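Weekly sync, protein design subgroup
Attendees: M.S., D.O., the rotation student, P.L. (late)

Item 1: inverse folding check
M.S. brought a backbone from last month's batch and wanted to see whether the design step gives back something sensible before we order anything. D.O. pointed out we never logged the input encoding, so this time it goes straight into the notes. Structure tokens as presented (204 positions):
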């Protein structure tokens, strides 16, 4: 973490920074939140993208920032240089959008607002799991036992926590565990080709 690529550090610090700015908005930024029903209504823009830069409280933002700084650096190292930094940022954003979109498709009739970078952070987590125990930047195959076991454990915990409870510090908000799962699966499956395009991972 203390030798993390700059782009991964900036992403982690952007989470509480954006939440600080969110507090200056008249409605707390929630007019920019994502509503699943907006997909059918055709009013999904800009909420589908903007929601990942909003959070329900300092604890919510802090947890995602910690996750980003924990799992972002190994993923960022797969994509060095300016081109790699752009690739890392795009990967992070697309994971977040995929997480929101997945949640929206599962809850298509819901008008509840959804916020948070958790889908993006879980995308980084899924990608980082492909590097478990590796110091050479070589991705583990999807069929690797460590990848399968850790993925099963994380998704099991994600499901259990999502079904049980509330976001810590989220003022009564629920956990969009489906968004986490969609972001995680995208990161797990797509980090191989993505890193080859933007940096050149040596094995998928």
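Designed sequence read out in the meeting:
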């Amino acid at each position: 973490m203390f030798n993390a690529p700059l782009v991964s550090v900036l992403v982690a610090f952007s989470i509480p920074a954006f939440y600080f700015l969110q507090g200056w908005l008249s409605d707390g930024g929630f007019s920019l939140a994502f509503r699943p029903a907006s997909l059918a209504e055709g009013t999904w823009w800009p909420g589908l993208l903007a929601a990942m830069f909003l959070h329900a409280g300092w604890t919510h933002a802090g947890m995602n920032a910690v996750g980003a700084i924990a799992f972002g650096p190994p993923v960022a190292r797969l994509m060095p240089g300016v081109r790699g930094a752009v690739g890392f940022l795009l990967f992070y954003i697309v994971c977040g959008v995929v997480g929101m979109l997945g949640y929206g498709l599962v809850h298509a009739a819901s008008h509840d607002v959804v916020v948070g970078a958790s889908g993006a952070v879980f995308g980084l987590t899924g990608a980082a799991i492909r590097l478990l125990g590796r110091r050479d930047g070589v991705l583990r195959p999807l069929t690797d036992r460590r990848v399968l076991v850790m993925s099963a454990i994380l998704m099991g915990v994600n499901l259990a926590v999502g079904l049980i409870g509330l976001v810590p510090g989220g003022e009564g908000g629920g956990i969009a565990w489906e968004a986490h799962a969609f972001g995680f699966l995208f990161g797990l499956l797509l980090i191989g080709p993505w890193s080859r395009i933007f940096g050149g991972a040596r094995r998928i």
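Discussion: The domain at 6-198 is CATH 1.20.1540.10 (Rhomboid-like fold). The chain is about 60% helix and 0% strand.
Action: P.L. to compare against the previous round before Friday.
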